Amino acid sequence: MDDTALPDRLAETRDDFLALEVKDRLQLLLEFSNELPELPERYADHPELLERVEECQSPVYLFVEVDDGRVHLHATAPRESPTTRGFASILVQGLDGLTPQKVLDVPADYPQSLGLGQAVSPLRVRGMTGMLARIKRQVAERGA
Amino acid sequence: MSVAFDPAEKFAEYAHPERLVSTEWLAERLGEPGLVVVESDEDVLLYEIGHIPGAVKIDWHTELNDPVVRDYLSGEQFAALLGSKGIARDSTVVIYGDKNNWWAAYALWVFTLFGHEDVRLLDGGRDLWIAEGRELTTAPAEVTPVEYPVVERDDTVVRAFKEDVLAHLGKPLIDVRSPEEYSGERTTAPAYPEEGALRAGHIPTAASVPWARAAASDGTFRPRAELDAIYRDEVGLEDDDEIVAYCRIGERSSHTWFVLTHLLGFEQVRNYDGSWTEWGSAVRVPIVTGEARGELPAR
């Protein structure tokens, strides 16, 4: 993976995961899961704005805004889907506030670099790959 | 040391009532010596946000599969896993999980490959336990590791391989995937990630019975009469039939295997765990598309 394109926050997250034993990586993912911000109220009444991530086993919806040259990412997933919430939270924290180009430049295989294959399984990590791809597509559509 | 069976009236109708326990039964017996409760979910973190007090977690992806070969654990690996969870060979194991016990049934089937005798499902699973407002904890279970003997896995009785299925063609096959996967519209369950199969459709002559039809709206198994209506009257299964069930990777079909074997009493049911991810990518195996079961290929 080309490191130069990786935003600082995502690089930090990756390093944090890789510094842990495989078992403890799950705990960190759980922390991310608990940190996923609530959807702003203006979206709560507009479910049609949210795009479902079909690659994820659990229902997860996301929506990207580009405002004043900055990307704002919103995601929501049920409490009963902590893994999916964790993936969404990593991306929200890592991408929010970046320029559209920075988001588009994030390597598509970033999810595979977190060392979660063993802790979570490669199949489940694919859900995060799907999320990232959909975020990038929405950013591109909203005029990078 | 086996824990007494749940005498619930509903279970008495099933062929093997000893394979199920009710939430009420379990709540009264938590902590009883000889009983180990196991949670097995689709979401690998669900256990961490709250589980039945004392329950240990077994994850199907990361713990029941061999990390390299597409296969289940070896006898040594299984012994190490169960010992580390505090499960002895004579423990009564009650497994529960999310999604109508989908993954719990899968774990139970894997336990069966190793001949663990007393393994049961919690009727209604995780969702019913929670819906009834029963106790949950986030505290990890305190486990005292025990010795579990090395038992070789027996793949001959409840497991079918691709070659077995080819030889089985002409006898009853149950495809438990969604109607869209069965007809060939798609290769993966609606809203599930693509797991990779090069062709879509079903194995010729397989009957389509989506697995979740065996579950009632509260996640418990349907009563005996309703299950008979589906599998005997509608599909046409008969007592001495040899049956193979399959899905995409063998997890949903474990649920149907449980229903056919333990609830309805069919004695020769195998789960084809290679399932569609193998069959749908294998070279020159027969496939049928569309809603009809299709004809047997000429040999």
TrEMBL record, chain A:
Transmembrane segments: none annotated. Residues 16-138 form the Fe-S metabolism associated domain. InterPro entries: Fe-S_metab-assoc_dom. SUPFAM superfamilies: SufE/NifU. It holds the Pfam family SufE. Belongs to the SufE family. This is SufE family protein.
UniProtKB/TrEMBL annotation, chain B:
Keywords: Repeat, Transferase. Residues 31-138, 173-288 form the Rhodanese domain. The keyword Repeat applies. It comes from the Bacteria. This is Sulfurtransferase. InterPro entries: Rhodanese-like_dom (IPR001763), Rhodanese-like_dom_sf (IPR036873), Thiosulfate_sulfurtransferase (IPR051126), Thiosulphate_STrfase_CS (IPR001307). PANTHER family: THIOSULFATE SULFURTRANSFERASE. The keyword Repeat applies. It catalyses: thiosulfate + hydrogen cyanide = thiocyanate + sulfite + 2 H(+).
